[in-house]
Amino acid sequence: MIKKNTTLGEFIIENQSSFQYSSGELSKLINAIRLAAKVVNHEVNKAGLIDIIGNAGDINIQGEDQQKLDVLANDKFIQTLKNREIVCGIASEEEDDFISINSSDNKNQNKYIVLIDPLDGSSNIDVNVSVGTIFSIYRRVTPLGTTVTLEDFLQPGREQIAAGYIVYGTSTMLVYTTGDGVNGFTLNPALGTFYLSHPNMEFPESGMIYSINEGNYVHFPQGVKDYIKYCQKEEGDRPYTSRYIGSLVSDFHRNMIKGGIYLYPKSSVAAEGKLRLLYECNPMAFIAEQAKGKASDGFRAILDIKPTELHQRIPFFCGSRKMVEKAEEFMQGK
Ligand code: AHG
Ligand code: MN
Ligand code: MN
Ligand code: MN
Questions:
Q1: Which atom of ligand 1 lies nearest, measured to the CA of 120?
Q2: pTM, whole model, 2 decimals?
Q3: Minimum-distance ligand to the CA of 119?
Q4: Full DSSP string of 178-208
Q5: What is the predicted ipTM?
Q6: Binding residues for Mg(2+) 2, per the UniProt record (predicted)?
């Protein structure tokens, strides 16, 4: 029985025994993410007061202008995980290549790797709109004690052990799953403690919100254009409401609570869409399925896709199950 107002620390300990190979390692890892989240939250809250908004001056591997907070969040998460020597490898949206972590005795026996989107929704930083962090955890496939390889990071999303996000919003929340449902914790900033505020989160089966960057309409495939027109049609419970923040974490979070669909399709200017399979789509798809929602590239479940590249992009349709199924019907010309 999940009690409300349990702290995240208590929750992690109470649920440790339910993990398949419980050695405490995963609990320690989630604790480290909890700590890094608090540090990043503290920095994000100061944006505008100290010089951490705006461009960092570099272009990242994704071809995007790196923001100062992208760099800061990336450094804080990586440093926290490295210092605690609890993972054997990390991959990040902001790093060209994956990072192999050696312990002080050079015999890293840790079995987990972490993939992160340290700061999601970069374009919202300068205008004080919600941003987030997304994380994903896998068990390595190469032998313990050896250097991690690309193979460890290119596992289908179905293999995830845990995934979650932090939304730095009107309040800061950490939402995560270890494959046994989804729970949300809200930060009490005065105490620096996350409390269980949203136990057993679930997407409504259907909803009234569609979230897509409609400015790209002319570039979308016909199936997406037709689905948008379907959402806008006056029939049954439609037209739906359009809501798009431009921060996947925030758009997803709202849609999970209220019922809705998020779409980032491919287009004539972005052959595979924009969102990254490893750092964005897989973790959100795992959370969505655990919350009785659905995530697809329009044709297949995101979690069944075998990644081929670290920074691979993929079209993304995610949210309330019936809405994603309807969008798939349009994509498949049914
Ligand atoms: P990031 O800030 O991590 O690079 O991710 C931005 C992503 C995602 O959060 C958001 O939904 C999407 O890009 C917005 O893209 P558009 O501005 O093209 O709509
Ligand atoms: Mn980015
Ligand atoms: Mn992102
Ligand atoms: Mn990012």
A1: 3
A2: 0.97
A3: 4
A4: SSS-EEEEEEETTTTEEEEEE-S----SS-S
A5: 0.97
A6: 117, 120, 280
